[in-house]
Amino acid sequence: MLLFMDIRFGYVSTALNLWNTTPSKTITFTRWSGLSPDEQTNKLLTITKQNIETTKRILHYNIAHEITVYRFSSSIVPLATHPDVRWDYITPFKQDWAEIGELVNKHSLRVSFHPNAFTLFTSPNQDVTNKAVEDMVYHYQLLEAMGMPEHALINIHVGGSYGDKQKAIQRFHTNSKKIPTDIKKCMTLENDDKTYTTEETLQVCEYEDIPLLFDYHHHIANPSDSSLEELFPRILRTWDKRGWKPKIHISSPRSEKEIRAHASNVDVDFIMPFIQLLKKTGIAEIDFIIEANNKDIAMMKLIEDLSSLRGINRLTGGSIRIK
Fold first, then answer.
1. N or C: more exposed end of the chain, with fewer CB within 10 A?
2. How deeply is 159 buried, as exposed, middle or buried, from its count of CB atoms within 10 A (0-12, 13-18, 19+)?
3. Is residue 18 within 8 Å of 300, Cβ to Cβ?
4. How far is it, in rounded angstroms, from Cα 189 to Cα 155?
5. Cβ count near 160 (within 10 Å)
6. Which pLDDT tens digit goes with each residue over 179-191?
7. Cβ neighbours of residue 277 under 8 Å, at least 6 residues apart?
């Protein structure tokens, strides 16, 4: 039996400890449409370059602080998939994307993307499905341009129920066949806080052979009929099939009334029952992405709070060991 469990921590997109680090600057289609053709091109190039440079700054910050898990912003490229824009966001920044990939690979960072809620495959409207495929392709092309970092993920939700979950799930199985095979190989599914429970999402994952990226906060807000003790060994097996280290989303509710909303930081008392459950599974290593509103600040505070507890030691700036 293993005597310890190691957890690496990461956060989403923006490093609040750094000045002016929003890697998601954009322009609306309406404003873009009012520009001349040359201005349109220059605006897209300028904003994308700013977002890329900001992303590099964040990666250097992560490396300096030994933070090895990070989720890229999905909005690095403005208007990337807008049907009336259609521009080449790879070629002009070929060296930049490669540089990001080199940083990730050299320092063994684990990176991911999380497309927005409109990237779903349960809709009866095929136009929605086609746009979802386009969005998955966009994210995959960025990873390709980076040199496909090892274990990089594109995480989405199952989608809406449209009044009939079973029919919607069947549409997911049908519509997801439109996702190119290489993209599907780096795809994960996440349980959500309103519609598809952990158990329902797990059934989809097992059928499709896709890892389940478990969200503990969502599970509390939208619980399954089966206990987490029953479900978690199955969740871990979805990762074992790929040979990947499991990954978890962690946050805590803003209040009892606003149970679905993320708090600024992560409440240790809220997540400790889950950490204790994890330890009992015998898993040796796992990654946490912190989704609290305070992002990297919340992540650092959580590591410090956990490290102050008996039996938990800090290994690096971004990881702990639980004995």
1. N
2. buried
3. no
4. 6
5. 19
6. 999 999 999 999 9
7. 228, 229, 232
